[in-house]
Amino acid sequence: MTEKVVVLGAGYAGARAIQTLESELDRVDADLTWVSETDYHLVLHETHRVVRDPGVQDDVTIPVGQIAAPDTEFVQATVEGVDVDEQVVALDDGEVEYDYLLVALGSQTAYYGIPGMEEHALTLKSLDDALDIHERVAQAASEASRNDPAQIVIGGAGLSGIQTAGEVAEFRDERRAPVDVYLVEALDEIMPGQDSELQGAVRKRLEDADVEIMTDDPITEADEDAIHFDEGDSLAYDVFVWTGGITGQDALDDAGLDDEHNRINAESDFRTSDDRVFAIGDSAIVDQGDDPAPPTAQAAWQAAEVAGKNVARTIGGQPLETWSYDDKGTLVSVGEKAVAHDVQAGPVSVPVRTFNSYPAKFLKKFVAARWIADVTSWSRALRAWDSL
């Protein structure tokens, strides 16, 4: 009997899983279907580049036809729900049945119940989000003056928030626009939980870019023109972008799977509480003992290869592989500059623990280009080089 394998999502985890499954399913009798609300894969960790220059969007979006083989069925639709009892995925225009399901739907922005946040903040989870931020920043800059500059506030000082602040600062400098950039973090330091050496290096780059950093005071409320803090004075804004956290997709609300805030609990082999459902990427919380993998592109594409193999192994009645996250270091861009920390170049670690300048910028570009090359070709990656 031909088994129906369905993959949900076209992010890092979904795109890599599709290519792995196409290779692995040659050994079993199975049909493969790929479902995504967009007909392209977005190189999400470079989406902040679009905030500065919408012209780079073609370089950070890869059509699914350049990723998937012709015999993989692609369905462009929004996933609205999963019924594990009936083995059906509900879509906004119909449904798709499965025998085995790999959930890689990614995440959505978490607002933590902060009043007014969802209503008033912009987010950066999609290409449309990045384009919207660009338009809002450009409009605010055009209406501002040197005596009354536009105030652009980025909430959340993780990777996404830092890189967004860097792009807005670069936008300001390239156009000599009257713009002030603020980066706001509830905890006492940017990049919470990271090594202090990395935090310090990134902070210096942000300060050099004239980004004002505000830490150790959580946002308690947002309204249409200001954010309010637990202790400090309110901060007026013209554009407010929130990058402060993630949660699972609403489509997984009633899936009947063990989860935490709609992020599905999965074992280290990516199996969930239902034997026919696997979960990876930001959709999942994968058991890694006391050292959980972060919700990053690096973790997602590492995991997807093992998950794809395990779906095929399940169909073939073979033992499953377990996955252990291998942290290959951190690369952060601040506009045209970058910081690298504990980076591995293949099997060898770069000897300098934290560094910046051209080597870090080159590595940041190279990692993004290598991902594009992995899912398409080096020629396409090299064409995108200047945009990365």
What would your notes on this structure say?
Helices cover 29% and strands 27% of the residues. A five-stranded parallel sheet has the order 5-2-1-9-21, with helices on one face. It is built from nine helices and 27 strands. It folds into three domains: 173 residues, FAD/NAD(P)-binding domain, CATH 3.50.50; 126 residues, 3-Layer(bba) Sandwich (FAD/NAD(P)-binding domain); 58 residues, no CATH class. α1 runs parallel beside α7 and α8 crosses α9. By secondary structure, it is of the alpha/beta class. The model has no long low-confidence stretch (mean pLDDT 95). β23 and β24 form a beta hairpin.
Low-confidence stretches: none
Distance between the termini: 45 Å
The total of beta strands comes to: 27
Task: Give the number of helices.
Answer: 9
Instruction: Tell me the CATH topology of the largest domain.
Output: FAD/NAD(P)-binding domain
Mean pLDDT: 95
Number of domains: 3
CATH architecture of the largest domain: 3-Layer(bba) Sandwich
